[in-house]
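Human: Note token order:
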Amino acid sequence: MSTNKNLTLFGFFTITASMVMAVYEYPSFATSGFSLLFFLLFGGIFWFIPVALCAAEMATIPGWETGGVFTWVSESLGERWGFAAIFFQFFEITVGYVPMLYFITGSLAYLLKWPGVNENPYIKLAAMLIIFWLLTFSQLGGTKYTARIARIGFIFGIVIPAILLIVLAIAYVAGGNPVHMTVSWDSFFPDFTKVNSLVILVSFILSYMGVEASASHANEMANPKKEYPIAILFLVCIAIVLSSAGGLSIAAVIPHNELNLSAGVNQTFEALITRYGMGYEWIVRVIAAFIGLGVLAEISSWIVGPSRSIYVAAQRGILPPVFRKVNKHDVPVALVMFQGVVVTIWMIVLTLGGGSGNMSFMTSMSLTVVIYLMTYVLFFIGYFHLVLNKKDIDSQAAYHVPGGRAIKALVAAFGLLTSIVAFIISFFPPSNIPGGHTGEYETILTVGYLVVLVLPFIIYEFRDRKNSTNLKNEPITTENAPEGHFVMHPKARANVKINIHPDDRLDQ
């Protein structure tokens, strides 16, 4: 399939910009204080860049442009492993909704002046269930207005509050107010002798996840060998600057032992604004409303995308035929409803069994990361196999990691080793989370991970090739992408333009 080579460096940045503005992750960054700079640099250099470069090489091989990690891992390691990779990618989203919903309940608590929405686990769970299922059912009617809502929510609920937070924090520090973190060369580095203090690395890895979804767009660049690495370097620099500014703003203003992970941004706005007078408290509530609506809009845009990505496996006969059924709006109803049930289970387990609010938040983030890291482990192993054992196929790629096979292997090794390190330390209970209870963290993380680990292999054993549709899908490009596609975070985007078999359309 021929692709127009009209994507500029700036154009590539605009379609990936949504991944560098995750305001709901700033409070977890802040728990590491000034050492958040170290974690962001480490994750950016040794994980984000290797993923981006290796993914672009695999995505620009003829015939590998569609299906994302499912295609890349299937073609390099075999379909069983490809299905496991896309299954883990799909499942991490089901857990990833939970900290986002926690963030919304934190905003609701400020908006309604009702702390129980964020502090009472039963009220919190009820609010999350109502919000999530309302959003899910709204998406069954199609995503016609989702793009517009997501765009408005991203600008007014994410971008503007993030900029305002940073500006107010700078004014706070410049005004000589107390700074609640230590800024020094020693505090730049975490305590490497205590593994528990390194667990927060998972939140930084999470902030970088999903860049592989944009790798296929390297095909649309006039000179991907030159332009793509520059674009990725620019993107990681912007991500580090913005995330550092957001995390440090919170760490400087809110004492560590008072920080609430799900309400930390609103907590910081309250401290920054009410110091000018309690009469300005209403502004905090307005900002909380906009932030909550921004994350609501982001969640709504995530509902259908992941289901469409795993839909490719249903077309291959790996999933039961019911998961191929779509309604008149081309929404895979069974997959979306299955996703909703799984998210509901995670919400119940994490909210009622996760200990404190902060520990539930951290557990949900860590579980999201360890599940997604399994996708990346398979991805990097597949890349090694491609480069070392399938050189004839690799040579066809439009983009190559520069430096020859030795450098390719070194870059992939950095990414794989960082993934393994992050995976291992995730299972140690964190020591820098205020108000945490570690027993629940270890139990939920271990049991949850083991359950998800075996599921794709059990499902694959029951595959039925007779249910394969044998339809060819096409890659999503900047020319054929649905409206608002690039407003979404890359990891929530559908990675193919699905061709629906006539028999898979539900009766109208």
In short: The longest helix spans residues 79-112. The longest strand covers residues 474-475. Residues 24-95+181-274+310-479 form one domain.
